[in-house]
Structures are given as structure tokens and as C-alpha cells.
Amino acid sequence: MREILLAASETPKKLENFLKNKFPIGYVRKVFRKNGIRVNGQRAKPDDLIRAGDRIQLYIPFERKTETAESPRSGRKVDVVFEDESLIIINKPAGIAVHEGRTVSKGESVLGILETQYHDRGIKPQLVHRLDKDTSGLLLAAKNPTTASDLESSFETGKVKKEYLCLVVGRLPNSEGTIDLPLPGREGKPVRALTRFRVVKRFSEVTLIRVAIETGRLHQIRLHFAKLGHPVVMDDQHGDFGFNKRFRKDYGLKRQFLHAEKLKLNYGGKPREWTGPLATDLEETLRMLSNQRS
What we know:
Number of strands: 18
Helix content: 10-25%
Order of helices and strands: EEHHEEEEEEHEEHEEEEEEHHEEH
Strand content: 25-35%
Shape: globular
Distance between the termini: 60 Å
Structural class: alpha+beta
Number of helices: 7
Mean pLDDT: 88
């Protein structure tokens, strides 16, 4: 059993968010799924608030992978879109997991790459949200615990607005719309999930859309459009596998067409907005589509 005592300086926050700053998200989900966590000796849930002086007991061992100098991603850096004394915003490439896991070492993850990138400056970045491995786009990291706590609170209260660029199978009939369908929550029970979309362009067999999510459920965009019968192009988990096979052959795209394009939040006392340039593989796919008749 491992015990963590919350320091006197710790501000109240959700238990899950506190743990995600210290462990890979896969481990955090595992301790909740297997009921391997207590707070002050009592059973705890992801949304429980924890405060200074609380004691967290973890009953499932965390095994950190050993990293070697021969890591294939050794020396890799990520593209920084914005940076100041407290905040880092990166444009994450597809194909890199945000956190380490069973098949991903720390050095191969976004967090590990960031820690290496900022190590010589005495900074240990903390990611405050996540993107799927095969989703590209903007990702926020804090340079200190205070900023991390503030950003986590902003995400929890819906003050951070995220907008995605997405290609879905088929021609969406409506130019804009809202999807209000429940999805599985942290404990597997249905919870509300709200997604808004606007059509950018219709092609012969696919539709390019901009998507804003009002809630942050796991795979929310991918699941919502799959439920509508218009799954994300090249989604290898919730998609149309026959269509994906043909699309990959015709256009060469090897991952889901989903890009976190914009982030909006109040920062430094004023509204701010950042845009992450579209990844090269997605740009090339759109170029090829545009050369065909809609």
C-alpha cells in the first residue's frame, strides 16, 4: 500500500485530477475500476473533492517502466504554439500517447517528452487534459501546481472552450446541429454528453465539420457521430471498417481525421484564443478531396 499526504498548500480539487498529475491516466482508471483506492480510509470516487491534510491510500502497485538511452524517441521535441512563465500550449502530433501505459514508456509519451524538453530549465510540466493517441492538436500543460489547479478548475466548470476539425463518413443533412446523447461515465453509468457541430464542406462521401464539445466524455466526438451513423473517418474503434479500408487505399490516411484546432479561455485577465495548424496528413487528405467533385 502506498499513501500520499496532501500538503497544507494543496487547494481543493477532484481526486481523479489530482492523481492524473502524478500517474499515467491508465493507472488512475485502473485503481478506480478495481476499487483500489481510499481517502482517509474510506472508499472514494473520481469526483470526490480532496483537501489539504487528506490521506490517499493506493492498494494497487504502480510499476514505472525503465527507460533507456536507446529509446527510439530519445531527443524528440514537441511543437510549442505558446509559452509564458506559467503555461505551455503544444500542437500534439498524432501517434504519440499523452501518458505512459502498458505499451508506452514515459520517454515515448507527450508528458515524458515535455519533461525532458524542460528538464534543464528546472520545470516539470503538468498536463491538465488529454487527447487520444491518434488525435492531433492543441494540448495545455502547466509549469507549476498553481496554474495546473486553476486550469483544471476551468475545465471542470466549462470555462475552457475546445473546437475540433473532423471528417465524418457520409454527407450530413443539416448544416449545423447538437447531439445530446448520454455516454458512459467514469463508473460506466450513463452521463449527459453534449456536442455541437457545424458543416464546413460536403464532399461526395464525407463531410468536413467543426465540432465543439460542452462536456468532456471519453471518445465523445467519436462515439456521438458513430451513434448518428456518421462515424469519424479512419476511426479504428468506433468507425466503419469497410469504408476505412477503402478510404486508406484511396487517400493514404492512416489514422482518424480528428484535430483539436482551437482553445479559448480567460487567461491573464483577458479572453485568449489559440489555433493549432492542421497536421500534414490531414491537409493532404483535404487537398485530394478538394480536387474531386463534391
